[in-house]
Specification:
Blueprint lengths: L1 H15 L13 H17 L5 H12 L35 E11 L2 H14 L3 E7 L7 E8 L3 H9 L3 E11 L1 H27 L3 H33 E10 L14 E13 L5 E13 L5 E14 L7 E12 L10 E15 L2 E16 L3 E13 L6 E12 L2
Parallel strand pairs: 1-5
Antiparallel strand pairs: 1-4, 2-3, 3-5, 6-7, 6-13, 7-8, 8-9, 9-10, 10-11, 11-12, 12-13
Helix pairs in contact: 1-2, 1-3, 2-3, 6-7
Length: about 400
């Protein structure tokens, strides 16, 4: 039994001598391989486990060519039967180029909802399928699609997309994956041939250490074969169907258009009601108004607020009836809640920091704002909000101020 392993190793090493090794750092040259094969009988008798012969066979089998040569099996073997005169890549040469098509389009429409409906009808006409269909919350003002269409129908499908509206952006990329696929195919054939040879060795093995060594190599080869086959299936899928992403958005004249004002300065008038909560028994209510200057370099707004109110509700202040606040803050929209792209009902969250005066005492003020844009157009913005401020820094101790507000902003 051990002699058969030695003969197989010697034959494999003879085949390796005619081929450049895949990894010079790990594979022996022809002279070293012959030396290993010559020394193997002595080691068989000296060490019953683990066996250097199996290691020699492993090196030889990894380097052995996939075509039939010195290391070949009878007709009953499952090894590759590719003739030595045929290159592994010739079997797929007739396939020609393999092109992976990926395209992106941005289309502006007068009626986004109608354009999206037409697009959904267009896709099945060309044998395609929709994999992603996303629209903004509420009334659709922006819709994004991802579709897969047969590669041979990509050009007429693209022409149909252009006819739905005005194209604002186009990006079509064609990547030739022929070499990548053919290289994977060549590697797969070699790994399958090596796997088949190890399976033959496994049938001959009766010693446990030999069996374990061969099975370890088989497990590694099978994992690599599965990975290569998965990569090839993915490439075939990418070549068979083009990937197209389309984004529909409203044009400048669209009824669906939502305009964040393009000005950079927004004067704002505000009416406010504030309740100063100093203790469980002392609550002072203020009614007044304020003025803000809002900037929109990013997010919803960067704001500077000034408010003035007079005590008019609940308890009477012990000193001054007036309350003042000077605050700076930032308001943000949430993409999950529409991102401020609607004409109506856009929620936002804000933060405030500044200085406040109540009952003649100054405080450091900090807090937040939760608001809702009631109406948002190109020129005006009307919103309501609730503000909570914590105040610290005076001799009377910390206290909290809460209250609703209504604001009207004009683009300047």
């Amino acid at each position: 039994m051990r002699q058969s392993f030695v003969m197989i190793s010697a034959c494999a090493l003879s085949a390796c001598a005619t081929r450049e090794p895949q990894s010079p750092a790990s594979l022996p040259d022809a002279a070293q391989a012959r030396s290993l094969a010559a020394d193997s009988p002595g080691s068989l008798g000296a060490q019953p486990s683990p066996l250097p012969q199996a290691e020699v066979a492993t090196v030889a089998l990894e380097a052995a060519p996939a075509s039939r040569g010195l290391f070949s099996f009878t007709s009953g073997s499952s090894a590759s039967s590719t003739p030595a005169s045929q290159l592994p890549g010739e079997a797929t040469a007739e396939q020609g180029e393999m092109i992976d098509i990926e395209a992106r389009y941005a289309i502006q429409c007068d009626a986004v909802t109608a354009c999206a409906a037409k697009f959904r009808e267009l896709v099945p006409k060309y044998g395609g399928r929709i994999t992603v269909d996303e629209g903004t919350a509420g009334k659709e003002t922006e819709v994004t699609f991802e579709v897969r269409v047969p590669a041979e129908k990509f050009e007429p499908f693209a022409s149909g997309i252009v006819g739905l509206g005005a194209m604002s952006a186009r990006d079509v990329r064609r990547r030739d994956v022929s070499k990548e696929y053919h290289d994977s195919e060549l590697l797969l054939r070699e790994r399958r041939a090596t796997r088949d040879r190890f399976e033959e060795l496994l049938k001959e093995a009766k010693d446990v250490p030999q069996t374990l060594q061969v099975e370890q190599q088989l497990e590694r080869l099978r994992t690599e074969i599965d990975r290569i086959e998965g990569d090839m299936r993915w490439l075939k899928d990418r070549v068979a169907e083009a990937t197209v992403r389309v984004k529909f958005s409203p044009s400048a004249t669209s009824e669906d258009a939502v305009f964040a004002p393009t000005a950079t300065l927004y004067p704002t008038l505000r009416s406010t009601m504030m309740f100063d909560l100093r203790s469980e028994t002392q609550r002072i209510g203020y009614v007044g108004g304020g003025f803000s200057v809002q900037f929109k370099p990013f997010a919803r707004a960067v704001t500077l607020d000034f408010d003035m109110a007079r005590a008019a509700l609940a308890d009477k202040p012990t000193s001054s009836d007036w309350a003042y606040s000077f605050l700076a803050g930032l308001d943000l929209y949430s993409d999950l809640l529409g991102g401020g792209r609607r004409k109506f009902l856009n929620p936002y969250l804000g933060f405030r920091l500044g200085y406040a005066i109540t009952e003649g005492n100054g405080d450091f003020a900090f807090g937040g704002v939760l608001g809702l844009d009631i109406v948002k157009t190109k020129a005006i913005l009307f919103d309501i909000s609730a503000r909570v401020l914590g105040m610290v820094g005076n001799d009377q101790g910390p206290h909290v101020q809460v209250g609703p507000m209504a604001q009207f902003s004009v683009a300047f």
